[in-house]
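Lab notebook, bench 4. Continuing the backlog of folding jobs that were queued last week. Each job is logged with the same field layout so the records can be merged later without manual cleanup. Today's entry covers Methyltransferase, UbiE/COQ5 family protein, a 204-residue chain. Filled in by technician R.K.

JOB TYPE: sequence-to-structure
TARGET: Methyltransferase, UbiE/COQ5 family protein
LENGTH: 204
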Amino acid sequence: MKDQAQVWDKLAKRYIKSPISDLDTYEWKLGITQSYMRPDMDVLEIGCGSGNTGRRHAPLVRSYTAMDISSAMLEAAKEQGPIPDNMRFVHADFDRADVAPGSYDMILALSVLHLLPNPAFTVKKIGESLRPGGYFVSSTAVLGNMKFLKLIAPLGQMFGAIPHLTFLSEDDMRHMIRDAGLDIAVDERPEGHAARFIVAKKPG
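JOB STATUS: finished
OUTPUT FIELD FOLLOWS
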């Protein structure tokens, strides 16, 4: 399998140009996320892509760190528009990054977990990286029942045409989050969508 940073470097321009498929659902997710935000929050977004979600959220919090594994993605993201003063882009792999426990009040992983080789590890680290009372916000494609995609995905991955995919079920998502010590507050799957939207809170 090709290195995932290289895969996303290759896909970055195409990804950035892709329009949001359902603006109403996107705005709904933004609204729910922002209902949990406070001006004193430090927020991390893992896999920030275009950075446009961060541009919407950053004015509502103290600091906003937009992290991505792909340097090409980050370069493209910086060109998408003005960057809020409290928002910074960071080139890093969250799983390997040196993140101190209790560093953030909210961590977002939007359309990310199903692209990771070990999402359970990532969610556990997210739980550790949150401060007590902090929030984890995720939107994750639930691919567990897509048997045909599971069959053909390895071929595309061999040539770097598509990224790694982890075939999670809805129960997998819930178990990972609870095993990380987080309590689920929002658990929704909009009609006609493959992605499960979850907001979970760290006790405290």
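OBSERVATION: The first helix runs from residue 4 to 17.
SIGNED: R.K.
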